């Protein structure tokens, strides 16, 4: 007797936006390569029922100042280059295979070094000169300061088609205007809240910013720290986008490293918790496992820190995309 | 929600005159206005202004030159429907409409298949307007079955249970609501269900209130399309809210704006 397996393939009526970050010389920038993401016509890894034309990509994080508060384990691979964001970025690309660089302007924070907009712009230019991959530029998180810094930085990197972030429900006008004026893409941030994720997009679209130039950042939680909430929000956003809700049909970005390297499971030394085993393996594994979960939820860009986690994640992406991996 | 903009219809004086004088401006103005407001289809109807299929072709071409929106060719005359479909530049179309008359279905189902168009079927037969829900369901089911057997994708079939003026046939609105609920059981997924909304408010003084109250009640029953005045902001806001309450859309504080943006982008 043979049983017939019912065909459960689903077809979706719509498609996730395709977004390209970085401009090559022909496109008016100086990048040696651009990155294209999005364009999915189905859920993640559902290759049997639709297209995932652009594999997710891994960005590595570089700061404008030495990242003093990173745990030693994740500072170590960059120890001699942390004082030079250009060299730091170059190491991420040349040695660790970063597909984009995420420059975090932590040094501009008024509670830290309070660096000037000009200094931030200089660092951004330095990173662009040092590597050929596209650039994500992330503000320090202080709204007022970011609104002072970004006008200078966005102009300085004009023509490079960078990804700037973040806009939020309460603070979107400055960055949206800059994205329009200098042709950059934007990251729309919301605090693990699907309604606000939609709202910030509407606000940006409503003042004429094109939906194709927005990425959704629904916030990120490390494995064990609310990951399931973010996962379900990403799923709902992706399903709504595939069903035709153009307001949420954007690729999704996850900020993995900053979350993972703040939790004890990743950063505690063996001395502190002997039963958790080798910290050198545990930390990168925690970061890679977190990234893996978000890949399954539909992440298009993962921002990461540890080279081992980056290597494992890129291998995972190759496998999930049907490439079989590298080892 | 599939919004079919009702305004390019020779029942309106400015459009009737435009058709007679071959004046593109009023037609294109209404095409742009309705498209901007999120119409998924623009209904085009030469009505009593002309019996000449070439006028329908002109009307379709005129609309197409202004906006990329899909066209709903609206006529009871098959020659006029054909002329409208053939005048298209390849964009999507809706045939508005057939009835449950076998002679009509025999011609219009193949026409829809040939032009890859959707087909709107009004639940009327040779006996005239249906007096109750049973007749509406019978006619709707007959249209649906005939269209599917004729090779039309179920997603391309839209059933219309026929609205009657509330002022003169008050009992009919309830039958229509009941019919909508029953249509949703005809197939899985449900066929699309539409009404020509303005009928219900004919000759009433509280026109817009009746229109949007009925529409919300009908959406609650499963209605997912309407030929209506897409310029009516309160009507659109009521639709957006009804869809939100049914959890068809993700909530956001600006959900009405989102509905407009979404409709505009897909139109």
Give an overview of the whole structure.
The complex is a heterodimer of chains A (about 325) and B (about 270). Chain A is an alpha/beta fold and about 325 residues long. Chain A is about 40% helix and about 15% strand. Chain A has one domain (about 20-320): Dihydropteroate synthase-like (TIM Barrel), CATH 3.20.20. Chain A has helices at about 70-75, 85-95, 115-130, 145-155, 175-180, 195-205, 225-240, 255-260, 265, 280-295, 305-320; strands at about 20, 35-40, 55-65, 100-105, 135-140, 165, 185-190, 215, 250-255, 300-305. In chain A, the strands form 2 sheets. An 8-stranded parallel β-sheet of chain A has the order 8-7-6-5-4-3-10-9. A two-stranded antiparallel ribbon of chain A has the order 1-2. In chain A, β4 (about 100-105), α3 and β5 form a beta-alpha-beta unit. In chain B, about 45% of the residues lie in helices and about 15% in strands. Chain B has 10 helices and 8 strands. Chain B has helices spanning about 15-20, 25-35, 55-65, 80-85, 100-115, 135-150, 170-185, 205-220, 235-245, 255-265; strands spanning about 1-10, 40-45, 70-75, 95-100, 120, 155-160, 190-195, 225-230. In chain B, α3 links the parallel β2 (about 40-45) and β3. In chain B, α6 (about 135-150) packs parallel to α7. The interface of A and B includes residues 195 and 199 of A.
Instruction: Quickly give the structural class of chain A.
Output: alpha/beta
Please report the total strand number of chain B as a whole number. Answer: 8
According to CATH, what is the class of chain B?
Answer: Alpha Beta
| Arrangement of strands in the largest sheet of chain B | 1-2-3-4-5-6-7-8
Give the CA-CA distance, first to last residue of chain B: 12 Å
Q: What value does the average pLDDT of chain A take?
A: 95
Tell me the distance between the termini of chain A. 41 Å
> What number of structural domains do the residues of chain A give?
1
CATH topology of chain B: TIM Barrel
CATH superfamily of chain A: Dihydropteroate synthase-like
The helix/strand class of chain B is alpha/beta
The oligomeric status of these chains comes to heterodimer
Query: Mean pLDDT of chain B, rounded to whole units?
Result: 95
Biggest sheet descriptor of chain A = 8 strands, parallel
Along the chain, the helix and strand elements of chain A come as EEEHHEHEHEHEHEHEHHHEH
Q: What's the order of the H and E elements of chain B? A: EHHEHEHEHEHEHEHEHH
């Amino acid at each position: 007797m043979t049983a017939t397996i019912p065909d459960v393939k689903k077809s979706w009526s719509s498609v996730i936006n395709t977004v390209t970050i970085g401009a090559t010389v022909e496109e008016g920038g100086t990048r040696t390569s651009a990155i294209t993401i999005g364009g999915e016509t189905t859920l993640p890894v559902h290759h049997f029922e639709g297209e995932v034309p652009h594999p997710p990509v891994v960005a590595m994080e570089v700061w404008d100042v030495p990242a003093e508060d990173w745990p030693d384990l994740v500072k170590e691979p960059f120890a001699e280059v942390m004082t030079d964001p250009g060299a730091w970025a170059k190491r991420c690309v040349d040695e660790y295979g970063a597909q984009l660089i995420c420059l975090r302007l932590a040094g501009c924070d008024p509670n830290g070094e309070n660096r000037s907009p000009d200094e931030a712009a200089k660092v951004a230019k330095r990173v662009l000169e040092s590597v050929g991959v596209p650039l994500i530029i992330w503000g320090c998180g202080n709204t007022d300061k970011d609104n002072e810094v970004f006008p200078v930085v966005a102009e300085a990197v004009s023509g490079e088609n960078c990804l700037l972030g973040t806009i939020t429900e309460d603070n979107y006008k400055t960055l949206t205007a800059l994205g329009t004026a200098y042709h950059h893409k934007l990251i729309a941030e919301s605090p693990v809240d699907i309604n606000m994720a939609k709202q910030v997009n509407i606000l940006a679209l409503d003042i004429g910013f094109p939906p194709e130039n927005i990425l959704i950042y629904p916030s990120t939680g490390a494995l064990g720290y609310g990951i399931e909430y973010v996962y379900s929000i990403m799923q709902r956003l992706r399903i709504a986008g595939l069903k035709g809700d153009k307001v949420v049909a954007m690729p999704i970005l996850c900020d993995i490293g900053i979350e993972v390297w703040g939790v004890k499971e990743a950063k505690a030394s063996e001395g502190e918790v002997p039963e958790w085993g080798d910290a050198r393996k545990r930390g990168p594994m925690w970061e890679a496992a977190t990234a893996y979960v978000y890949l399954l939820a539909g992440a298009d860009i993962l921002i990461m820190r540890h080279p081992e986690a980056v290597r494992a994640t890129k291998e995972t992406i190759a496998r999930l995309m049907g490439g079989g991996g590298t080892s | 929600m599939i919004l079919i903009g009702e305004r390019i219809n020779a029942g309106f004086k400015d459009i009737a005159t435009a058709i007679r004088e071959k004046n593109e401006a009023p037609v294109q103005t209404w095409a742009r206005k309705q498209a901007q407001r999120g119409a998924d289809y623009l209904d085009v109807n030469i009505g009593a202004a002309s019996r000449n299929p070439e006028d329908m072709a002109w009307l379709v071409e005129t609309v197409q030159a202004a906006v990329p929106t899909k066209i709903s060719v609206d006529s009871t005359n098959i020659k006029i429907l054909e002329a409208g479909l053939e005048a298209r530049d390849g964009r999507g179309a809706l045939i508005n409409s057939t009835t449950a008359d076998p002679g009509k279905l025999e011609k219009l189902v193949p026409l829809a298949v040939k032009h890859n168009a959707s087909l709107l079927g009004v639940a009327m037969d040779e006996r005239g307007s249906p007096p109750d829900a049973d007749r509406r369901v019978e006619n709707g089911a007959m249209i649906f079955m005939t269209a599917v057997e004729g090779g039309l994708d179920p997603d391309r079939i839209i059933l219309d249970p026929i609205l009657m003026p509330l002022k003169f046939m008050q009992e009919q609105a309830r039958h229509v609501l009941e019919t909508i609920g029953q249509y949703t059981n005809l197939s899985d997924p449900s066929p699309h269900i539409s009404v020509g909304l303005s009928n219900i408010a004919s000759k009433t003084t509280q026109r817009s209130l009746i229109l949007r109250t009925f529409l919300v009640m009908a959406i609650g029953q499963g209605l997912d399309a309407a030929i209506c005045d897409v310029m009516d902001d309160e009507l659109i806001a009521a639709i957006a809210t009804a869809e939100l309450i049914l959890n068809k859309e993700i909530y956001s504080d600006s959900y009405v704006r989102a509905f407009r943006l979404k409709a505009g982008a897909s139109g």
